[in-house]
Every structure is written in C-alpha cells, then in structure tokens.
Design a protein that fits this description.
About 50% of the residues lie in helices and about 25% in strands. InterPro entries: cNMP-bd_dom, cNMP-bd_dom_sf, RmlC-like_jellyroll.
C-alpha cells in the first residue's frame, strides 16, 4: 500500500484524504498458485494492485499459450481493455505464485470519479502506464533482437528471472525455451 500512497501523493499530487477514500473502497483477494484471476470470455470489472506474488497474462491461440504481460509486486493488474470497454476479454491472468491483490471495482472507481474529478488523475495514470508498457513491448518486437528483448526485460520487470520460469519468459519474448538458453549462454560467454 506504500507504493499506492506514493502514487497518490507524489506522482498524482492528490491528498492523503483521496488515498483514504480510495482505500476504503478496496477489497483484498487471495489467488492461489495456478489459479486464474480472470479467464478469457469474462468481463473484467476491477483494477488491482499486486501486494505480493506474481501473475502472468496470456492469450491462447491454436492450443498454445502466449504470455503477453507479467504483474509483479506493486504493479497494477487488470484485463484493461475489457475493463475500459466492459466487454469480454481475450486474455487470461494466472497466478504464478500465491498472490494477494488489493482491488477496486469498475463501478466503485466511477462513483469516486463522479464525486470528485481529482480521481480522474488516477485513471489517467493507470491508462498511461498500460499504454506505455504496451508500446514499449510492441516496439521491442519490431526493432530488437531476442537477445536485446531479454536484456530489456530486467529493466521493465526488475528481478523477474528469480520469480518467473524460463519457459514463461521465453514465451513473453516470443522465442522457444531452448533459444532462451542459447541466448543466455552466448551472453555469459561474451562477458
């Protein structure tokens, strides 16, 4: 919750009363390892903050799973396109470890915004955060080699290699696990 307080006060310029009002509307959810927070075809009605644990977002296509995002401690978690449109999502969010999330519902956040337009700053911050992450990932696939994408991964997700299996990291990078092993070996030899 300290991270959320910092976002409210230092990044958004809101007051402690805003954070208190927001946190009074929040719920806590525990998701056990391998359970899903949300599944494809459902409508996402929440935005959460991961207080502990790690999740992955993935899309299924032709029987295969493709990781498209990770959510580590202190990050926002949501099937955000579904949240914004209130239409069914095409992604799944699964816990890779036991996870605790503090979340607020779509209706609750909109109620707060209707009561105090300062809460729009939070909505913009979350939207900007998602947009920038998605743009960086898309650009990385268009401009960078798999080796460069791996190098950038630790900048985007500090400590991820200690929290997520190589299989899931390879999927996120758009390569096979054996290619990831080869890239890591070549990087190690060069050093």
């Amino acid at each position: 919750m300290e991270t959320l307080i910092t976002i409210f006060i230092e990044k958004l310029g809101l007051e402690k009363r805003h954070f208190e009002k927001f946190s009074n509307e929040m719920y806590t959810k525990i998701v056990k390892k391998k359970e899903h927070l949300i599944i494809e075809g459902s409508v996402c009605k929440f935005i959460g903050v991961v207080t502990s644990g790690t999740l992955r977002s993935y899309i299924r296509n032709n029987g295969e799973e493709f990781n498209n995002d990770f959510y580590l401690e202190n990050s926002f978690v949501s099937a955000y396109t579904s949240y914004l449109t209130q239409m069914p999502t095409n992604c799944n969010i699964q816990a890779l470890t036991d996870v605790e999330i503090n979340y607020i519902t779509y209706n609750q956040l909109n109620k707060l915004i209707a009561e105090d337009s300062d809460f729009l700053k939070l909505g913009k911050y979350i939207s900007d955060n998602y947009f920038i992450r998605k743009c960086k990932r898309e650009t990385s696939f268009l401009k960078n080699t798999a080796s460069e994408r791996l190098e950038n991964l630790s900048t985007i997700f500090p400590g991820i290699e200690q929290q997520v299996s190589q299989y899931h990291i390879a999927s996120y990078l758009g390569i096979k696990p054996e290619s990831l092993s080869r890239i890591k070996l070549l990087t190690y030899i060069k050093k």
